Amino acid sequence: MSHEETLRTKLSAVPRGKSGWKQFEDTATEVLCHLLIPPLTKPHIQARSYSEIDRRDAIFPNRNHGEKNHWGRLLHELEARMILVEFKNYDVSDIGKEEVNQTRSYLTKTMGRLALIVSSKVPNDAAHIKRNTVYSEDGKVIIFLTVEHLDEMLYMKERGEDPADLIIDLIERFYIGWE
Questions:
Q1: pLDDT score for 45
Q2: Radius of gyration (Cα) for the chain, nearest Å?
């Protein structure tokens, strides 16, 4: 069994909802580390702001200054010095505009203007509309990654492809659909 297959199995075994929130966060972080390091570097987990008011699930430093890769492009395009990741392992509740607003508030000038919400289900229409508003008002891009996206990225890695291609595709689809 390949490492990617092991990670897919582990991710699919996580219980949805409140009971599996920590396992989802840990497993999804493990998957993202496998997929994105390098070129990103080891994430800061449960990183808190100085005042400890804000707690971000994971922050992947992007040190690809001047690099000719996807992350170098995103660093230039969105000032994505830190890739913020928020995990939502919802079962019954919807992932809505509140979750988008929370993520938006974490995207400070020093972090950059790119965040990923990794979720066990597709966010609702209100989340998609709020994401458009966030981009219109602040120029911040929030990408929704589901477990199915993570699975596809693992298949891409297994085939020797760059999993970040999927993130770029999702950003481009967001730009195309933005209004």
A1: 86
A2: 15
